[in-house]
Amino acid sequence: MQALPAYQKWFEPAAVALALAGVALYAFTGTYLFLAVPFVALFIVLMLLNWKLAYWVLLFTIPLSTHLEFFNATLSTTVPDEPMMWLYLLLFVLLLASRPRDLLPEWWWRNPLTLILALQYLWLIVAVIFTEQPLVSVKFLMAKTWFLVSFLMFPILVFREKKDFRTAFWLLLIPMVLTMLIIIFRHMQWGFNFRKVKKAISPIYYNHVEYSTVISMFFPVLCMALPLTKGKPLWIRLSVLGLILFFLPAIYLTYARAAMVAIVFAAGIGVAIRLRLVNWVMPVFYGVIALLVVYLARNNHYIDLRPNYERTYMHGNFASHMAATFRGQDMSSMERLYRWIAAVRMSEERPWTGVGPNAFYNYYKPYAVSSFRTYVSRNPERSTTHNYFLYMLVEQGWPAMILYGILIVAVFARAQRIYHRFKDPFYRYCTLGIAMMFAAGFINNFFSELLETHKVGALFYISIALLIVLDRKSKEQEAEQGRAERTSLA
Predict the structure, then answer these.
(1) How do residues 96-148 score in pLDDT, each as one tens digit?
(2) How many CB atoms lie within 10 A of CB 315?
(3) pLDDT band at 8 (very low <50, low <70, confident <90, very high)
(4) CA-to-CA distance for 276 and 232, rounded, in angstroms?
(5) Residue 455 — pLDDT band, cuts 50, 70, 90?
(6) Residue 131: left if φ>0, alpha if ψ -120 to 50, beta else—which one?
(7) Secondary structure of the chain in the HEC alphabet?
(8) What is the pLDDT of residues 208-231, one digit of tens each?
(9) Residue 290 CA: distances (Å) to CA of 241, 297, 399
(10) Mean pLDDT value across residues 349-360
């Protein structure tokens, strides 16, 4: 797809001038950061010449992008993928200005998943208006905007044919495997020590939870790719099988319990979709959680779960870590309870709009119950609720949390409908893999709030966008099949 010709006359020379300015600034200041400017300029030129090709570059950089202290101290961003998202937001504005009526098709706007996400975004704006921390909340809104544009809207324009799905698969898989090999090699030098995993993943991933979430989300897609290698050369089938076997120990070596549960849950969602039972999964899930919350709240039963401060700590190996989890002596599990209780108590004062996006950290400690305090409750890394439902509740209010809950149900229900509508095995396995990727992301985010990170958030929103594309394709194929049957009868 070509960019806007009208803008090329002035934008390309500007990009060249920007590149030269970057080199000059580096020569004058000696700051290596300015050497990135020519690459930015080249990417801008590529966007103007072929923004679809540039989008493939963006996807390729997602697993490779990293946090840099210089950026974190000033712009709170990751490179190079997030600056690319800024450019795609600008491109979207230019495209929208040039052809506002036909940029995004009507079927996209009419899709129930689009409508739910639109309501989420509108309520986010409301929460920002009433926030206690305007600056951080506005920054959150801006980041959410370029996330949605890059990974919810542009995929609708990019993914048109089977080759687009194949291209995206390899462009995400190859750099992801590269990062995994680097991390495993580094981790191996410390004997795969449980407490060294964070050091092994830095600076490619922010922490081991983000790393485990990304690879556990992509694992089901890889599994669904295996049946599609039928009829392909033997080396391709063996390569995909080998990658599946490589991912399993890699996920284990992240030592992230949520990622392991996520794989099991994703497999369950896959089976439920094939058996037409997925519409029962989330109502049952929500029902169990609701009953558990009612039980713990009644007569303050949750107090019985309070940890022993002196015996609740980070354990030296994964086996001890798992054993401590069941005994209620694991620090990370107890810290979650500490944050969850604080979040629920906070929400009672601001039930409708919450304290504001990205504002939890500044207000939660007075609401915490001190008997649940652990050695990490000082929270120097400024992490939040460790549960995305409560994250929505405390920062954006009940409407945001309810909309998120509805979105999860709607995605699985839609995936089931799409899967059984398709007759084409390629698109059926694509639908199943994407739904399972979303399911793994959901479970990981039930114990975290990683949708706002660039790697997890990208996979989450791309999965929704691709289901919307597949929904349209399944309807078109069903209509074509119906016409063919009527023609044959006539």
Answers:
(1) 888 777 788 889 999 999 999 999 999 999 999 999 999 999 999 999 999 99
(2) 18
(3) low
(4) 30
(5) very high
(6) beta
(7) CCCCHHHHHHHHHHHHHHHHHHHHHHHHHCCHHHHHHHHHHHHHHHHHHCHHHHHHHHHHHCCCCEECHHHHHHCCCEECHHHHHHHHHHHHHHHHHHCCCCCCCHHHHHCHHHHHHHHHHHHHHHHHHCCCCHHHHHHHHHHHHHHHHHHHHHHHHHCCCHHHHHHHHHHHHHHHHHHHHHHHHHHHCCCCCHHHHHHHHCCCCCCHHHHHHHHHHHHHHHHHHCHHHCCCCHHHHHHHHHHHHHHHHHHHCCCCHHHHHHHHHHHHHHHHHHCCCHHHHHHHHHHHHHHHHHHHHHHHHHHHHCCCCCCCECCCCHHHHHHHHHHCCEHHHHHHHHHHHHHHHHHCCCCCCCCCCCCHHHCCHHHCCHHHCCCCCCCCCCCCCCCHHHHHHHHHCHHHHHHHHHHHHHHHHHHHHHHHHCCCHHHHHHHHHHHHHHHHHHHHHHCCCHHHCHHHHHHHHHHHHHHHHHHHHHHHHHHHHHHHHHHHHC
(8) 899 999 999 999 999 999 999 988
(9) 40, 11, 17
(10) 94
Q: Which one-letter amino acid corresponds to residue 355?
A: V
Rounded CA separation 192/431 (Å): 35
- Arithmetic mean of pLDDT, 237-265: 95
Phi, psi values for residue 356, rounded to 5°: 115, 145
Distance CA 42, CA 23 (A): 13
Query: N- to C-terminal Cα distance for the chain?
Result: 40
Q: Largest Cα–Cα distance in the chain?
A: 80
> Which amino acid is located at 6 in the chain?
A
Residue type, 225: A
| Other beta carbons less than 10 A from residue 142's beta carbon | 13
Cα separation, 94 vs 98, whole angstroms: 6
CA distances from 165 to 237, 441, 474 (A): 18, 20, 15
The residue length of the chain stands at 490
User: Cα(419)–Cα(117) distance, rounded to whole angstroms?
Assistant: 22
Closest CA to 273 of 468, 114, 421: 421
Using a 10 angstrom Cβ sphere, with 0-12 exposed, 13-18 middle and 19 or more buried, the burial of residue 380 is exposed
Identify residue 210 by its one-letter amino acid code. Answer: E
Which pair of structure tokens corresponds to residue 424? 């084409």
* Whole-Å CA distances, 413 to 153, 273, 390, 408: 21, 8, 23, 9
Tell which residue, 265, 218, 233, 270, has the closest CA to residue 428: 270
pLDDT the model gives residue 487: 76
Omega of the bond leading into 80 within 30 degrees of 0 (cis): yes
415-427 mean pLDDT: 96
CA distances from 257 to 24, 69, 252, 424, 482 (A): 49, 29, 9, 36, 47
Cα distance between residue 176 and residue 180, in whole Å: 6
